[in-house]
Amino acid sequence: MNDDSYFAIPPYSLNKESKHALLSETLNSLTRHHYQACWQYRRIIDAIQFDTTPSRSYYDLPFLPVRLFKEYDLLSIDKAAVIKTMTSSGTSGQQVSRIFLDSATAVRQTKALSKIVASYFGQKRLPMLILDSSAVIENRAMFSARSAGILGFSMFSCDRIYALDENMNLDGEGIAAFLEKHEGKNILLFGFTFIIWQHFYKELKRTGFRPDLSKGTILHGGGWKKLADQAVSPTAFKKALHEVCGIQRVYDYYGMIEQTGSIYMECECGHLHASIFSDVIIRRARDFSVADIGEKGIIQVLSILPGSYPGHSLLTEDEGVLLGEDDCPCGRLGKYFSISGRLKNAEIRGCSDTYADRTR
User: Fold this and answer.
1) Do residues 131 and 244 both lie within one domain?
2) pLDDT per position as a tens digit, 123-159
């Protein structure tokens, strides 16, 4: 399929059989492309004696450990074609992943993200309150995961302000003026989990400032470890935010810089969903076999979007549980799952968690 026909499909409309056929075709093609174009990838595939010639189920395709992108610059394009370099979150002294994008891959990522978000919030652009500081947005050619997230989701806004100043202090006057300007309208709020908790929720609670965000929707992501350390559960997170600003719609998402655009959005039932642009496979740690529904294992993520680097099939350092497929009460087709946490001894890497670690 070409890009136009693929992106014409609603992101949660394919059942198991149809999605399997489409992903298998596309991911087999990507595997062959990266085998030809990236010499490091080719050496890995040759070392495991995998034959890329026949097409097979995408379950049987090789995967790379996501950590490889911290160790090597993996490209399937000439360096002259790189228009943007993305870096993962990382605490001080940690190596970070470096992801190289050409224009075609960047466009596909933007299209996929747009289709996914529009399926939740509609096509209309909304006023947006970014629960972060504008100081995060620095070099537009070298994006951190945090700045990339802010800029990526900002494209769904018609007007936007940052809720925090350059020192990460709450801008109460700016927020009040923004809400007065857009009184009665639906508002989209975006930020990273720990930053929202530390610099938005806690400051609202401390100062007594109570903005009316009852018509707002918060979209957040970037790691739960630091909040879990504070015994803050997703339910407690949502309840606390409702208490200080009246917000009722709070949705998490799961994603990573190595597969930008292929985010997994939380639905109204609290489940993370795979769109037609991506999929998850839960694998047993002992032998990497496919885990059953309800069985915890290591999360493998697959995406049709990476054309400029071999990031289409990756084994993460996260654990999760597949909850079902094609039968979520929200009505979206495809797999839905939950995140259990990081693998033992894996580095902290979520935007929220690495920010919290740096500010201790």
Assistant:
1) yes
2) 889 999 999 988 877 645 445 777 778 888 888 889 9
CATH number at residue 224: 3.40.50
The answer to whether residues 117 and 230 belong to one domain is yes
Q: Is the pLDDT of residue 246 over 90?
A: yes
Question: Do 244 and 321 have their domain in common?
Answer: no
φ and ψ at residue 189, rounded to 5 degrees: -115, 140
- CATH number reported for the structural domain that contains residue 318 in this entry: 2.30.38.10
Using the 3D structure, point to which of 254, 279, 299 is the last residue of a domain. Answer: 254
Same domain, 240 and 122: yes
Between the ranges 25-34, 95-104, 214-223, where is the mean pLDDT highest?
A: 25-34
What is the sign of the dihedral through the CA atoms of 306, 152, 225 and 282? negative
How far is it, in rounded angstroms, from Cα 360 to Cα 146? Answer: 18
Tell me: do 137 and 204 sit in the same domain.
yes
- The pTM of the full predicted model, rounded to 2 decimals, is 0.88
